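Issue 218. Parser rejects a valid record. Input:
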Amino acid sequence: MSELATEIMPNPAPPAAVVVEDPRLAEDIAQHFDAEERRRLTVYDDARILVEHPEQIGEDVAIVSFHVMRNLAKVHLEALTEFCRRHKVVLLIRSQDFLDAVAYLELADGVVFQDATLHRLKDILTLSTAGYSILPSAAVMDIVTDRLRIDTIARLSPVELSILDQIRLAKTNRAIARSLSLTEANVKTKVRAILKALKFQNRTEAAVFAARQGESIRDIAKRRTEEVETDAEGAPLRH
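Output the parser choked on:
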């Protein structure tokens, strides 16, 4: 830890707004502060205050859950962006939601995983208030998102895995269909399903990921094919 961080850490946690979807989560957050610090936490029951009455948020830093931020962004993205520009925001997410939350990281000054690093919340609040952005580096984000996606692709079918591997080569749907003896419409449907399952914004993101993790994808595809063949061999005959 740097000397600067060491100097900052002993200070009491700053006044903070808490905007989460579940009162029990707000209680969990409060448990990580001492009695005096809890008096400086303000829990706002209605998340719309962030976009409809931001002037009523007097705290410099806000703890906002991913669930709240995502729902507000659907209909109030401009107002939410303005709130995040004027306030320090610490995004609270679960590890399993990290892929979905990546698009919202640019609105936040810090990230806390409620199932892993909630005990660091005070430190991150203090540093965020002091003007330091506590976010995963690009390299760490690539590692984390790739790991989560690799876990997910194990659930894709062998055909979907083959399509993903060919997306890596920048092949068109027509070329992929011809290569795998599928219809172009079928490939188009499966590509959409792949992008949705792996949380890709577009085909280019999928191609970059597939190029980076090509060997893993092919290994998983081989295992999935063997599993399907084994199931077929062991299945009872149908008349």
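Fixed in the parser; the record now loads. The two ends are 69 Å apart (CA to CA).
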